[in-house]
Structure formats: structure tokens, C-alpha cells
Amino acid sequence: MKRARNFNAGPAALPEEVLVRAEKEFLNINNSGMSVMELSHRSAIFESIHNQAIQGLKDLLYIPENYEVLLLQGGASLQFSMIPMNLLPADKHADYVLTGSWSEKALKEAEKVGETKIIASSKDGSYKFIPNVNDLSIDETAAYLHITSNNTIYGTQWTDFPSTQSVPLIADMSSDILSREIDVSKFGVIYAGAQKNLGPSGVTVVIIRKDLIQPNQTNLPSMLDYSIHAKSNSLYNTPPTMAIYLLSLVMEWVKKQGGVKAIEAMNSKKANLIYAAIDESEGFYIGHAETNSRSKMNITFNLPTKAAEKLFLQQASEFGFVGLAGHRSIGGCRASIYNAVPLAHCEELAAFMKNFKNSYE
Ligand code: PMP
Questions:
Q1: Which of 94, 96, 148, 153 could serve as 172's disulfide partner, Cβ 3.0–4.6 Å?
Q2: What role is this protein assigned (predicted)?
């Protein structure tokens, strides 16, 4: 069976090696005579898988000791609410930078919880760029500053992160976590739904500085309280065991690739191939993002006409490419090239783009 050339935005391509291993272990994990899905989440075998997934993230991102890694549910979308519910006290406000639809959604949920301010936005510029970090005025009285490190829909990505001093920097890294080296100590909280670079959907990773976890919050439902999850090593209730198992396998795979540094170099190579196809097309492909804000994960572009776009997507699909249509909110085309998308598929896409342009004109 030939595997699809999968450019889906999420859920997205998983490493083939991981899927093959999961298939091999599907009926019998660790000689238990059970599938991982049939194990008790309190069993020693599952606990070890769970801890391996957490340790894998700690190792790969060099997460300092003063951070907790939580495996939660509810997607990144629930974090839009949990962040302000846990970290925005009534006498403070939270700052947001708007760089796309996901930051808008994060802001919308925070507005329901407390006072918020938008300190920068690229909305008026069709979300084609990331505001310059040096232009951000950090308000020392803010409870936190929230950013979206990679904008999955518009195809823009932060390269430098703001220095926020004592204000905790919170980043939604759903679509670029583990794609590049980051200094975790610069952040108060990093969160990400797993379904792009980490594994399947169903598990959400939250990396939170321990001093930000407030114990004994009386007004919060337990499931929305970071301290409850932290106290029980993310085993307060039944976790998504299959998703966590696959997360642990993806962590092993990333280690085998040479870690995040090697993955980052490969991601640059992959992105450069497709951006070159855009830049060398003499304006046939029009990249959405400004050059210095380009995402290495989601490459967004348009063609000269809607008809050309339609034909491009149709022929791409016939060729075996999956997931190249842009997000339904903005249309156009988008190639999502997360960690598990092989270089060969990016080479094939770049070649296809060149051929399509030549045959169209
Ligand atoms: N943030 C970003 C940057 C995303 O790309 C997505 C999903 N595409 C979300 C948040 C929402 O994630 P979830 O579906 O896991 O709630």
C-alpha cells in the first residue's frame, strides 16, 4: 500500500515508523496480552508509557526542572479558557497579540473570564506578518502576555520571542512545537494540541512553570485546575491512553532523528524547497505571508485566478497529494509540512508546482 503524500493541517502525517510499531504492538503491548487501549490507566505498563511520553518531551525540549509537563484533554481550545481561569486574577488584565484566527479565539475565551488588552495585531494587514518584537510595549502590570507562535491558517510564525521580564509569556505552540529549538525558560506556559507534531488528536500538552500553578483554587472545576492535574501527574481521571502511547512513540522517533536540532534543519530544508517554488514562479504563486514572517510549518499561497487554483488543487489531488486546500475561512492553498512529512514529499510538491506553472501558461 502506497502511503499518501499528506499535507493535512492537523490531524496530520505521523511518522510511518511509529505507525508500523503501533500496528505490531496493537494486540499485545509489552507481553501483556492486551492492546494498550485495554490496559488500566493505573497499571504499571501504562504508567511507564505515560511517564516515557512526559520524559520524552522533557528531554527533547530541555525543559528545566522548575516546569511541569501536563497531558490534558479538550484540545488547545480548552487551554484558551484554562489559561485565564487559572492565571488571570480579578484585579489584573491579560495582554494578547493577535496574529490570526487562533489568537482571536484565545482572546475571545479570555474576555469571558476577565479583563484583556490587545497590545499588537496584524489583523488590518490580513494577518500577513508577525508584529516586530521590538515594537511591543510590555506592560509590567499584565497577568501574562499571550502569543500564537505559529499561525496555522495564515502561515506565519514568530522567529524571535519577546522578552517579557516578569510578565509570564504564554504561547500556543500547537502547530510548531518540537519543530525547532526553543528556550523554554523564556515562557511561563507553552501549550499544544498533539495532532500536528506530537501524535494523534486527543491529548494536549501543557508545559507550565511551577510557580504559576496556584494550589487550592476553590472556584475552579477540578478538571480545569492545573494544580489538580499537576498533583496527580496528569492521571487525575482517565487519560487518552492510546494518544499518550502514540505520543511516547513519536518522542522516541524524534530522538532517533537526532532530536529537535536535526528536525529543525530538516524542516528548513523542506520549507525552503516549497518557498523556492513560490519565489521562482515569477508571481504565478503568491505567498500569503511576508517573507520575514513565513512559517516553516504551514506554507500558504494563492494562484493568479480562482480557476487556476481550482485546477491546481484538482490535479494535485489526482497526483496523490492530500490536504493542499487552504483553510475554509480564507481559501487558497496551504501545504502543512510538519515534522513527519518526508523530505521526498516536499521535493515532489515543489516539482509538481513548477510543472503545473509551466503547463498552465
Ligand atoms: N491553536 C492553533 C495554532 C491551532 O492550529 C489549532 C488547531 N488547528 C488550535 C489552536 C485548536 O486546537 P484544538 O483543535 O486542539 O482545540
A1: 148
A2: Catalyzes the reversible conversion of 3-phosphohydroxypyruvate to phosphoserine and of 3-hydroxy-2-oxo-4-phosphonooxybutanoate to phosphohydroxythreonine.
Residue 171 in any domain: the answer is: yes
Catalytic pick among 95, 196, 253, 296: 196
Separation of alpha carbons 242 and 223, rounded Å: 20
Pocket test for ligand 1, best of 8, 72, 77 (most atoms within 8 A of CB): 77
* Domains: count for the chain: 2
**CA pair distance 111, 114, nearest whole angstrom:** 5
**Residues 68 and 120 reside in one and the same domain:** yes
Strand order in the sheet with 169-172: 67-72, 204-209, 189-193, 169-172, 145-148, 93-98, 115-121
25: domain range? 16-256
Same domain membership, residue 312 and residue 281: yes
Are residues 149 and 273 located together in one domain of the fold? no
340 with 12: CB under 8 angstroms? yes
Contact 291, 300 (CB under 8 A): no
Same-domain pairing of 198 and 218: yes
Q: What is the ipTM score, two decimals?
A: 0.99
Q: What is the pLDDT along the chain (361 residues), one digit of tens a residue?
A: 788 999 999 999 999 999 999 999 999 999 999 999 999 999 999 999 999 999 999 999 999 999 999 999 999 999 999 999 999 999 999 999 999 999 999 999 999 999 999 999 999 999 999 999 999 999 999 999 999 999 999 999 999 999 999 999 999 999 999 999 999 999 999 999 999 999 999 999 999 999 999 987 878 999 999 999 999 999 999 999 999 999 999 999 999 999 999 999 999 999 999 999 999 999 999 999 999 999 999 999 999 999 999 999 999 999 999 999 999 888 899 999 999 999 999 999 999 999 999 999 7
Domain annotation covers residue 201:
yes
Q: Catalytic residue at 176?
A: no
In a domain, 8, yes or no: no
Q: Does 238 show up as a binding residue in the annotation?
A: yes
CA 131 to chain centre: 20
For the entire predicted model, the pTM comes to 0.98
In the annotation, is 354 catalytic?
Answer: no
